[in-house]
Write a sequence for this structure.
């Protein structure tokens, strides 16, 4: 039986992408520090190239993905939260100004 995806699957994808981006950033940082301590210049050069080229571009993509996910979640209307179309009342028992029909004729 096929599992149903949650409504905010895009936000979950963005969070997972951010998690792996931060893990790769931490891994490159550890590799750079270890190669600097052990004086292995080749590994430190590779770590710097990865940080400058790949992770900067990946971080821009992840930020864009998070922004798109936030917009999609903000635009989505949850089901069951539609307010009734009739006039709503204040605690005082009067109608809200937004519920008043502006096309009614007013006698002066």
């Amino acid at each position: 039986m096929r599992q149903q995806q949650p409504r905010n699957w895009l936000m979950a994808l963005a969070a997972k992408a951010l998690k792996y981006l931060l893990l790769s950033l931490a891994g490159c940082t550890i590799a750079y520090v270890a190669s600097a301590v052990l004086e292995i210049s080749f590994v430190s050069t590779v770590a710097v190239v990865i940080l400058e080229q790949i992770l900067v571009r990946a971080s821009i993509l992840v930020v864009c993905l998070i922004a798109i996910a936030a917009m999609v979640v903000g635009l989505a209307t949850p089901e069951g939260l539609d307010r009734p179309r009739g006039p709503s009342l204040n605690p005082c028992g009067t109608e809200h100004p937004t519920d008043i029909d502006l096309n009614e004729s007013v006698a002066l």
About this structure: The first helix runs from residue 9 to 37. The CA atoms of residues 22 and 104 lie 60 Å apart. The two ends are 68 Å apart (CA to CA). The chain has two helices and no strands.
